[in-house]
């Protein structure tokens, strides 16, 4: 609808102006402390530090900062010179438009690589800018397939992508005993991509897609599409979207008397889904890339270090940001150079034993051993089932 | 057949939600000739105030029964929304009453954005859940399911429409409203306080919006600072479809829009052999709107309510 688009644009413009004012006011305050005899290497970090997922953004920043502090404590030398790493953290507010602005800002500040961004929607537009500048970008949490499909040799990620997730979810649906599957996607990049991969995998495992329905990420009424799925006698509904839709959807499934299993991706594997779905969320299945913290190879030590340093608990992606930063620093050390031309081949071929598991990349820059964990709602909590590759 | 019946019920419920909000649009338009785009946001404020009131009353030192809490929380929501609407009219519309028509339309959109942002600051960006104050029960008849909240929504929209019609056609205030709609100048010459009548219109509309907000968030058990925008847009569409300015039209338009959406989403896929899916739901709804407006520019029940220009 045109009216929505216009308002959206107006809002973005408004936010842009506010940002510009605050930016002009603050730009004079940052001061680089110069340690004599040490070369400063700047590394960027981008995540939403304000807005409704600011807590996740701060978590990423903390993970990256922890890795930087540890590297500095080791007082590394590169090219025969003592170096000190400096983290420049930027806020992209989870907005695609803002992400390219901060990406350019980081490039202009002379960072040699970037850990970020958090969302797929911001990581992809920013990746072009980093690629043009020729510097490495490692996302700790962007899962959209397209990010590494652009042919950029600068784009990497340390988390399993939606193709891997969709594949695992499709096979898992059949494993749960589903034969006729109804799919609902929210028509965002994330929802659409995940639904496609899910369908491919479910069909390959012997399932049948009896309905593919659509909604969007503002709707709260799903009765019409759920009734249609009911008429197709589906025994499992796969929802490819976010928790704000998945929660109310659970209630409507129960109210309409549908007797189906419910499966969703990482967009629904949240605390909010549990609150919104209430008692009706019981028995729902969902996936999440990676492993739960206590199953990770270095999870215990990392949790201890993290909570001691920042005096707060880990949200989700901090270990991934930590691994991403360590991989980048290792590549620089291995190349003995901060020139991307030297360290990028080293990064592409890296074998790093990370907190989240072994970090190494395939041709495209995706993590080789991408794991997906599955959960089920039991007594109002997400109970871990298993981790699949 | 039971599936078709279920889709009709889905449509009726969704349509009643639209109608409930559309009544507020159409009432203000009928009397002032103004499209109050901030109405959707007043609905949202109603829902948010209700939820806050429930948590305050429920967590307070007094032990109250759930029904007492609901009644007090609804009254609080109506009260806050009425005050809000009174000030919206005072600040954003009254100074522009004699300005070109475009000017109040722009302030209305501005008001809508302003209210959304204020609500975001007060209640945060996270989604809120409707508390479990009563048991949602699902009844089955002829293979179709309907919940008590849904039945209540349909019932209350009809009741509100009927009582609004009664107020406007049978009371003294109603007569003053109709006179103002016809010509504010002449109404004021006849001793009608036009400003009071217009304020009252906004206050009544806001009271309805508060009730709509509570019912919508109860039905979907979710509330969010941005919930009013799309809802307002759909309700506005329903009001235009039914004939803006006409109360029965808002009801008819709302229910029709709900039915088109739900039956559209349910059957487009099968009718077109999978060529078009449920994502054409909105396209269908607006196609019907365009067709209706081509043949009946005033909407289905539309009449020439006020000719002022």
Provide a compact summary of the structure.
The complex is a heterodimer of chains A (389) and B (309). Chain A has 389 residues and is α/β, with parallel strands linked by helices.
How does this structure look, described?
Chain A is α/β, with parallel strands linked by helices. Chain A has two domains: 37-160 and 296-359, 3-Layer(aba) Sandwich (Rossmann fold); 163-289, Rossmann fold (3-Layer(aba) Sandwich), CATH 3.40.50. Chain A contains twelve helices and 15 strands. In chain A, the strands form three sheets. A seven-stranded mixed β-sheet of chain A has the order 8-7-9-10-11-14-15, sandwiched between helices. In chain A, strands 2-3-1-4-5-6 form a six-stranded mixed β-sheet, sandwiched between helices. Chain B is an all-alpha fold and 309 residues long. Chain B has one domain (2-128, 142-295): ABC transporter involved in vitamin B12 uptake, BtuC (Orthogonal Bundle), CATH 1.10.3470. In chain B, 73% of the residues lie in helices and 3% in strands. Chain B has a two-stranded antiparallel sheet. The termini of chain B are far apart. The chains are: A alpha/beta (389), B mainly alpha (309). At the A-B interface, helix 1, strand 8, helix 7, helix 8 and helix 9 of A face helix 1, helix 9 and helix 10 of B.
Oligomerization state: heterodimer
Number of domains of chain B: 1
Q: Secondary-structure element sequence of chain A?
A: HEHEEHEHEEHEHEHEHEHEHHHEEEE
CATH architecture annotation of chain B: Orthogonal Bundle
| Total domain modules of chain A | 2
Largest sheet features of chain A: 7 strands, mixed
CATH level-1 class of the largest domain in chain A: Alpha Beta
* Helix/strand/pairing category of chain A: alpha/beta
Strand order of the main beta sheet of chain B, please? Answer: 1-2
Poorly predicted residue ranges of chain A = 20-34
Low-confidence stretches of chain B: 305-309
Structural class, from helix and strand content of chain B?
mainly alpha
Shape by Cα distribution of chain B: globular
What is the overall pLDDT average of chain B? Answer: 88
* Number of separate strands of chain A: 15
Report the strand count of chain B. Answer: 2
- H/I helix tally of chain A: 12
Radius of gyration of chain A: 22 Å
CATH topology term of the largest domain in chain A: Rossmann fold
